[in-house]
Amino acid sequence: MADVLIVLKVFPDSDEVNLDNLYADISSKLPKEYKIIRKETEPIAFGLNALILYVQMPEQTEGGTDNLEEIVNNIQGVSHAEVVGITRLGF
């Protein structure tokens, strides 16, 4: 079974949210079969930055990417999270 790579854009509640702490919270709440491969920040506006996460997860995950979005959206400090890209890894 192959994995997929999800590009997830996480918008914080405010510019006062520490993105490193937010990343740590997200990492600790993900299921063990999910792996964050890379993280970036992207300026949005007026000092507000989004957290861009590259998450590897099993292709046959029940609920697909909805489960990932739900987990992240329920973390304190997250305004909302959305999948902006997905690609299959391996053959």
From TrEMBL:
Family, according to the entry, reads as follows:
Belongs to the EF-1-beta/EF-1-delta family.
CDD domains per UniProt:
EF1B
Annotated keywords: Elongation factor, Protein biosynthesis
Asked if the Swiss-Prot or TrEMBL record annotates the protein with the keyword Acyltransferase, the reply is no
What is this protein's function? Promotes the exchange of GDP for GTP in EF-1-alpha/GDP, thus allowing the regeneration of EF-1-alpha/GTP that could then be used to form the ternary complex EF-1-alpha/GTP/AAtRNA.
Coiled coil (residue ranges): none
Q: Which GO terms describe its molecular function?
A: translation elongation factor activity
Residue ranges annotated for the Translation elongation factor EF1B beta/delta subunit guanine nucleotide exchange domain, each copy included: 3-89
Name of the protein in question: Elongation factor 1-beta
